[in-house]
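Schema walk-through. Below, the input block comes first and the output block second. Nothing else is stored per chain. Lengths vary across the set, and this one has 204 residues.
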Amino acid sequence: MKTNEQNTEQVILEAAEAEFLEKGYDGAKMLAIARRAGVAHSMLHYYYRSKEKLFQAVMLRKTREIVPLFRGIFEQGLPFEETLNRIREERDRYLLSQVPQMPYFLLSEMLLKPGNRAMVIGLLERIEAVQRVKEMLEAEVEAGRIRPIRFGDFLFMLLTLDTSSLTAISVCRGKEGIETEVAQRLMASYREHNMQLILEALKP
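--- output ---
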């Protein structure tokens, strides 16, 4: 892809992300995204064909930003529970560095819209680092330490429990001016509580 095309695509993705975060998937309009990006409406369709494909591109872009943070965790050979905790810790650090709307956006799209939930889960399942989690989950099931569960259902449970907590903290940060360090400590306590809920739900 030529440099000019890469720059145009980058501008479109940034405009789309802002529009989706502000208005949600259903409320976002391709014409509004084109105006934000300063490009012709036809240019969006040239690159992405539809709002669904543009949404997928935005979600994949955000996923690719965070996945490299996980690679070092897998190299440590930690137990399943500790690996999940470390992954969630890195993810939370990343999400708390983003705009305040990000956790709520993820929660609303995952919980309220089954079609988008399937789309997001499908994107995640294709990421190599996420496949490592799937392998660890399958090993835990085979060893009898947790009950059989579909990987997509496991990801949904993991994401929605934590994202609810992140959303609450992000709202408080915006309204009460909570410092990042305080927000991280709060999220650590939520992670510990949520891990117990997850483990209880996964009991054989």
